[in-house]
Every structure is written in C-alpha cells, then in structure tokens.
Amino acid sequence: MKLIGSLTSPYVRKVRVVMAEKKLDYEFILEDVWAEDTKIQIHNPLGKVPCLLMDDNGSLFDSRVIVEYLDTLSPVGRLIPQTGRDRAATKCWEAIADGVLDAATSIYIENNRRAPESRSQQWVDRQHKKIAGALESMDNSLGDQAFCMGINFGLADVAVGCALGYLDLRFPELNWRSQYGNLQRLDEKLQTRPSFVATAPPKP
Asked: Where is the GST C-terminal domain (predicted)?
C-alpha cells in the first residue's frame, strides 16, 4: 500500500498512527496539495490528503474511511469495536475530534491562504468557539478514565491525540492544557506511544 499525505496534516497523522499501531507496511508519498503541479486529484477527486493507494491500484480517501478499512486488515491491535454501542461511541469520539480539526484547519487556511482583505474575523471566532466547546465536552466525557473508551486504547484516543497535537502545532497560544486537565493527562500518555512519537509533525 501507498499513503499519499503531508507531514503536518493531522488527518494524515491519524492514518499513520493507525498503521503503526496495526503494524502495517506501506510507502509514504509526500504531496503538497496546495502546489500548482499537485497530482492528488488523479487519486482523490476532492484534491485532499490522506489518500490510500491499494495493491490493486484502487484508492481510498477521507481519514475516517481509511482507518475503518485498515482496522479490518489485521486482528492485531483492534482499534474499533465491531458492533454495538461501543462502536458508535468510538465513532462519536472520532467525529468530535475531527470537528476540532475541521475548525482548526479552517482558521489556519483563513489566516494563511486567503488574502488579508478577504479574511473574516467573525468566521475565525466562530471556529474558535467550536474548538472550545469540543474540548470541554471531550474533557468532561473523559473524566478520570485511562482512555476515551475506558481501560483500552483505541481509535477514539488516536483521533483525540491527533487533534490535540495539531492545536499544539498551529495554535500554541491556546494553552488548552491549563483548562482541560483530563485531556492533558491523556495526551501525556499518548505522546509516549511509539506510533505518536514516530508521526509527530515537524516543528515550525
């Protein structure tokens, strides 16, 4: 398999962490989707990463779709419950963590990819409110549990860890640790895992 992505994309990182946890072999192909000569749309018509190229030349895109597929490839380190309420709860954790990423990447694009005269502070403020609300909800839901779903590490923790890592990368001024102690405790635990260490984004 080949994974097309970037070193700073948190969605790509989520897939890379899952592949590391599942001990899956793949080739990592760097791609700048903002470059004029990007070829990403050959494999993903939406022009986004991550994109997974499979051995039969088929492709999968969207991190949620990719990690769902990857978890079926090996029984090693099952990350998503197969059925029932725990599965739905895991996907909800992933959804709220991805919501943080969606808001954070929107702010970054607004402030760095749009012309200054076209930027909307009202839009940016709206995205910050989403981030704050999601962090508070996740912190409360986590409580004193070891991991998002209780005692076992899973996809929920991967998604949350990647979201928190992206906030550290792009918005260190948020200082979320001072407000969300439960998430801080989880993050400290996740950052010791080899899968997170190996996929840490380069510092600006």
From this structure: 83-204
60: left (phi over 0), alpha (psi -120 to 50) or beta: beta
d(CA 40, CA 9): 14
CATH topology of domain 2-70: Glutaredoxin (3.40.30)
Q: What is the spatial distance between Cα 10 and Cα 106, in angstroms, rounded to a whole number?
A: 13
What SS3 state is found at 97?
A: helix
Q: Which of the following CATH numbers is that of domain 84-193: 1.20.1050.10, 1.10.600.10, 3.20.20.150, 1.10.3720.10?
A: 1.20.1050.10
Tokens of 14: 């989520």
User: Which pLDDT tens digit goes with each residue over 43-60?
Assistant: 999 999 999 999 887 999
Residue 204 has pLDDT above 80, yes or no: no
List phi, psi (to 5°) of 93.
-60, -45
Q: Please give the model's pTM, rounded to 2 decimal places.
A: 0.96
Q: How many Cα atoms within 13 Å fall on the side-chain side of residue 140?
A: 7
Tell me the CA distances in angstroms from 52 to 4, 27, 121, 149, 159, one per residue in order: 6, 10, 35, 27, 18
**DSSP secondary-structure letter at 144?**
T
Dihedral over Cα of 191, 194, 200, 202: its sign: positive
